[in-house]
Amino acid sequence: MNFVDSELLVSVSRGFGVGINDEQLENFRLYAELLCVWNEKINLTAITSPEGIALLHFADSLTLLSCGSFKEGASLIDVGTGAGFPSVPLCIMRPDMKFTMMDSLNKRLVFLEQVKDRLGLNFEIVHGRAEELGKKPEYREQFDFATARAVAQLNVLSEYCLPFVKPGGSFLAMKGPSGRDETESAEKAIGLLGGKLSEIKEFSLGENTRQVVMIDKISPTPERYPRQSGKIKKVPL
Fold first, then answer.
1. Residues 208, 221: Cα–Cα separation, whole Å
2. What is the C-alpha separation between 4 and 125, in angstroms, rounded?
3. For the chain, what is the radius of gyration of the CA atoms?
4. Using one digit for the tens of pLDDT, what is the confidence trace for 31-76?
5. CA dist., res. 3 & res. 167, Å (int)
6. Max Cα distance, the chain (Å)
7. Burial class (CB in 10 A: 0-12, 13-18, 19+), 192
8. Which of 120, 118, 119, 122 is nearest to 101 (CA)?
């Protein structure tokens, strides 16, 4: 059974400058199969068609490779990774990088352990909440990049993610068509947290529009951030 439209994935990714070789494509096929099989046991995704997985999970994740300079050995934390998007596709393409996948729901991380073993990938899996881990010295301002996809509005998301990014690094927020509008209302929050808007890149994935909001970390995040989760959501910056 074909779980991913490989030709669609290759052609769309090539359109934004990402080439996929046969070995990488086989890993994407295996990842798609694991995703669909496990999705019958736990809720990982509502998108299960071969075309949807190719476009809206895999190609969508790979748009980040067109955003920023990922040097060899660069570190990236995926906040609220869920079923591993965008970090597993990125790890398939860039095994030289150091990936940390964080989620508060343990059963998703059990799935990611299976993905890690079956695909032979090397990444760290962390169980926890962003507002708690962002205060811990082993995670706070330790990463070249942080990213998150479909987690929260950008003003809220920035408080979850920017504390993980070291000064000189970047936060890459994956958004739909609302990214530009969210950025305007998040300008104050981004500044308070030590960030500065760099660029917004837009991608077309079939009939879907994706925007990646690129935020540079220009100064350390003040110690009082991130706040407790209830306050972050009820009283956004």
1. 34
2. 25
3. 17
4. 999 999 999 999 999 999 999 999 999 999 999 999 978 999 999 9
5. 40
6. 51
7. middle
8. 122
Beta bridge partners of 205: 208
Q: Round to whole Å and give the CA distance between 157 and 229.
A: 11
Helix, strand or coil, per DSSP, at residue 102: strand
CB atoms within 10 A of CB 197: 15
Give the residue ranges of DSSP H helices in the chain: 6-15, 22-39, 50-52, 60-62, 87-93, 106-119, 130-133, 154-161, 179-185, 187-192, 229-234
Strand partners, 125: 101
DSSP run (H or E) holding 175: strand 165-175
The angle formed by the CA atoms of residues 90, 91 and 95, to the nearest 5 degrees, is: 130
Q: How far apart are CA 82 and CA 68, in angstroms?
A: 23
The SS3 call for residue 201 is strand
Start-to-end CA distance of the chain, whole Å, equals 47
Place of tokens 């995040």: 221
For 236, the token pair is 């956004």
Nearest 5°: the CA angle 20, 23, 28 is: 70
* Residue 155 pLDDT class (50, 70, 90 cuts): very high
Q: Are 211 and 63 in contact (CB under 8 A)?
A: no
Q: Which pLDDT score is estimated for 69? A: 86
